[in-house]
Amino acid sequence: EAYYNKGIAVSKSGYYPTLTMSGSLSSGYSSARKQNTLNTQILNQPVGYLYSNPSEIVYGPIVVNSIAQSNYPFGKQVSDNFSQFVGINLRVPIFSNRANKTSYQIAQINYERSKTETYNVVLGLKKDIETAMNSYGVSNVKMKKNAEIVDLQNTILKNLETYYNAGNLTLFELLSQKNAVQQSNASLLQAKYELVFRKLVLDYYAGKPLAL
């Protein structure tokens, strides 16, 4: 029941806006990449000649740029290519094609069904406990009655032994009574075992450790 109650709360969350945040960190490395280095040199090169003496060359400073390539180290590539991203997304459930409402209704149905199932389980358990208690009571009465019968049969046997010793009873009648005593003892023993079993059933329902 508590599980389905949580399900209702979860399904209701579909009606509310959601705010999500995402982020990422990335970098890259390629063994084919090269590191370019700009080299600048100032060279003294011919820039013209004298107007008065064309045969005399005039020299001047000239800036010469060149690019040199070298291996791009792994650590420097990872550092130079490092990038990071953080984003926030807001979702407002205005149109959901009745999905949220359907989910909420299904959660309510499951909750009500779980309540009914729990109630039926409780009723069944209550019935089983009442049956076990009644069975224990019947077994207790049965054992007491069998104990009374054993006492009565033993009393009758003692009286018949007196008659037999006096010659007023046949051996067959005495043996028949001894068989009756044995049968009553067997019935009493069976009743005792049955009472022990019924008590164990009650202990099980009460949550007590089972022990003979």
Describe the structure.
The protein has 212 residues and is α+β, with helices and mostly antiparallel strands. Helix content is 57%, strand content 23%. It has 4 helices and 4 strands; from the N terminus they run αβββαβαα. It has helices at residues 2-12, 74-80, 99-165, 171-206, and strands at residues 18-26, 34-49, 57-71, 83-91. A two-stranded antiparallel sheet has the order 1-4. The protein has a two-stranded antiparallel sheet with strand order 2-3. Helix 1 (2-12) runs antiparallel to helix 3 and helix 3 (99-165) runs antiparallel to helix 4 (171-206). The radius of gyration is 52 Å and the shape is rod-shaped. The two termini are 37 Å apart.
Which key phrases capture this entry?
alpha+beta, two-stranded antiparallel ribbon, 4 strands
Short recap of the structure:
By secondary structure, this protein is α+β, with helices and mostly antiparallel strands. 57% of the residues lie in helices and 23% in strands.
Q: Helix proportion of residues, in percent?
A: 55-70%
Give the strand content: 15-25%
Which structural class do the helices and strands define? alpha+beta
Unreliable residue runs: none
Can you tell me the overall shape? rod-shaped
As a whole number of angstroms, the C-alpha radius of gyration is 52 Å
Detail the topology: elements first, then pairings:
Elements: H1 2-12, E1 18-26, E2 34-49, E3 57-71, H2 74-80, E4 83-91, H3 99-165, H4 171-206
Antiparallel strand pairs: 1-4, 2-3
Helix pairs in contact: 1-3, 3-4
